[in-house]
């Protein structure tokens, strides 16, 4: 009987490099289950590798794999009797979902359970001699039993328990390889991505602070919390793979074995921080062992680290690490120091480059009121309509659209109404309200010939998106609502922002005395949208969240550049605030994802929390340390949540709270 290696899926370079090594060792032909989209994405990642030799090597491996284009979760096991009935199978499983963002936790756990059930059925229907599961050395719980809020940890703990229980009295040998892997490896780096991700978050945060308080790091250090026991495993990808293959080839001692696949010494988190600080000339970093010493700036970064990189600061169980000799440890440290320096240099150079413009197709139609109406499209595939905030340029969405357009057909425009030319007969007294925004959505949908689509809305785009849904429920597949302004609703005054209160006050004063318009235009530019702070003071820490960075002002503040646009914008906002959508939210029966920002001073996250409680079929996530400008300043985090929504929205089975 021929022996084959069957992977339930490959999702990143680590999995492909593992297969490449198994092939080099001539351990048998490799089969792999895969969705076509996942396989094409993997091919794109491989083609992006700069090292020609490795790129060609991995492409050769992909061509040598016998791919079965079927997702493991949807696998009909009995369909493969002819293929597998006369073979001995060595089964390998890497987790399909590794995101630590638990937005769709219940759906992901259900999907994972289905995958594990299919693995069990494969073992029952065919001759599977061994199951090999690539797990991590981290669990869902810390030493005190507190939940670390990591979805990956929960999945892997459940899978280890599943394998232990289901195969304990069978002839199937189970090996669980406990690695320091916690992220997908989507680029050619030889190291696990925790260090890359920490550097990315640090530089992103430095830019965020500098755009609000340019002199902050001239006078202050960034203080980061650490514990004496916080360590990072710095095993290279290939060393982990070599250790796994070595353990795989060893004769099993027990039916079920948990094997340490990390091969390094402990690299202290403190050491990482100090080494990064040593390589940065424009920011000083200090370590503290007490969170009480962190100021408001430090706490923002602490929230970001705790949420996005929980694995970076966990104790590592020494029993799950294979010790190396001192010389190997020394070499690892020297390599990692060079790696940190090179990564920082590349990241800093990348940050100096202006963001690339997204290739959007401009389309123009004549609207019902006889005026020209321009919108933009990008990409191809399933349609997503973006309902923008009032007065904001479509360019604000470029970084989000750049990624979405790789798999979807995206439509965006600048909401109309701040120009007289948008109005019937250019009538200055006409207010382009929410109902007119709904008509614009209808005209775009008709012009594009769309039958159904997803809808993403931001801030003041929320109500027109929801009111369009009320009229055309059959058209909407799902909603994604970003930092929405939902008031008025019962109790909403406590959740009003300074922005809203100022807008309402200024609109009233201007309507009583139009000569005051110039004065209030200056107030809006220098008050509601504060300019960067010359010197930081801890007396008013929250002030930094209200600052409008210079690099975003042209994209976001067009409504305040002329009297015409200013008056129209004020009138549109006042009309917007009249619409109560409380009852409408309770009618929504399509999947909804609410995304809010912890530090939002325009549409406070409490409003999104409230709206979430009204919609029975909804999920909610709040970005730690983010402001209302999340699509500009944290697009990767927004996209991660959108991507998870697009994967799992159809499985949203949450009951009304």
UniProtKB/TrEMBL annotation:
One of its GO terms (biological process) is acylglycerol catabolic process. It holds the Pfam family Abhydrolase_1. This is AB hydrolase-1 domain-containing protein. Residues 383-634 form the AB hydrolase-1 domain. It comes from Ruminiclostridium papyrosolvens C7. GO terms for molecular function: monoacylglycerol lipase activity. It comes from the Bacteria. InterPro entries: AB_hydrolase_1, AB_hydrolase_fold, AB_hydrolase_sf. GO terms for cellular component: membrane.
